[in-house]
Amino acid sequence: MKRDKIIYYIATGLLTVMMLISAGMYVFKNEMISEMFVSFGYPTYIIYPLAVAKVLGLLAIWNPNFKALKEWAYAGFFFDFILAFFAHYMIGDGEQTGAIIAMILLLSSYIFNKRRQQA
What we know:
Helix 1 packs antiparallel against helix 3 and helix 1 packs antiparallel against helix 5. It is built from five helices and no strands. The chain is mainly α. The longest helix is centred in the first third of the chain and has 27 residues.
């Protein structure tokens, strides 16, 4: 029980740091991110909404009162990381490692959150 809680908080904390850095880059390094999105073939108008969605997703994951919303946030991050992995892989820039790390943290957070709730 205590081990599950510790793993949950570590994984969720590291995931939070990654997503806040990512959202911060979307806002404060917009030109660099815009170039990257154009190279992916994605429209640049989704950069700011994606940054906001990442922050809102983190709020949903950390709030214990939003059980259904928390599930949607985990699902949204899952699809975001899958798409990020394949976007980086397809253009061959070698930056897909961040998406893999984020996915591992996300799955760890999700699994240990479920274990923590069952105990």
